[in-house]
Amino acid sequence: MPHEHNDHCGHESHEHDHNHDSTELGFQDNLYLHIDRQNAVTLNSEGKASDILKPWHERLDENKYIESDADDQLIIRIPFTGSVRLRALLLKSGPGDQTPSKIALFANEPNLDFEDVSDRKPTQEFNVPQGREVGEYAVKTARFSNISGVTLFIPSSQGADTSRIYYLGFLGSWTAAKQQPIITVYEAQANLADHEKIQGMDGTWSAPGL
């Protein structure tokens, strides 16, 4: 039976190292701080979403990861704390044949599960090469503009019984969600004259018509 994990983790420091590799250029628009990590969910996994939603400087750490459980399929639901214009997906997976065969990425599908994923058309798909580094997968930004979350579906591994992911990150821009105005309607003090007394029940008051 697939397991669902809902994370509850605290705030983590946000820093990075100074190894100027190819993905270093993407640090400035890393969306790590704008992921709602407490509400990120993984389906059919050993491990929690927070194990792979790491700060930038921990992207190569292999001590924490998620691995599929009952088979080699995984679903990862990632909500953001505001409105996101996504530019790229960052992924470190494997090793070897535990690497996902591909990633199907869905925009604004917060409740996607294994029962209905086959009926949905992915917003974009990526093939995943084997390797030890973090891969950067550019998305078609027009399809991922003004989104509140993404869901990843891994349909299979590259031959192993399970799929494994070490790091998942996102590049793009973030804006705070627009707050709806809150209108509070209240009565400062109940006025008993506004209510009707029920005959024969002294001291008991009821709204008119009851």
TrEMBL record:
InterPro entries given in the database record: Galactose-bd-like_sf (IPR008979), PITH1-like (IPR045099), PITH_dom (IPR010400), PITH_dom_sf (IPR037047)
List the record's Gene Ontology CC terms alphabetically.
cytoplasm; nucleus
Domain PITH: residue ranges: 20-190
Give a single Pfam family match.
PITH
The family assignment reads: Belongs to the PITHD1 family.
User: Which PANTHER family has this protein been placed in?
Assistant: AD039 HT014 THIOREDOXIN FAMILY TRP26, PITH DOMAIN-CONTAINING PROTEIN 1
| Protein known as | Galactose-binding domain-like protein
Species of origin reads Crepidotus variabilis
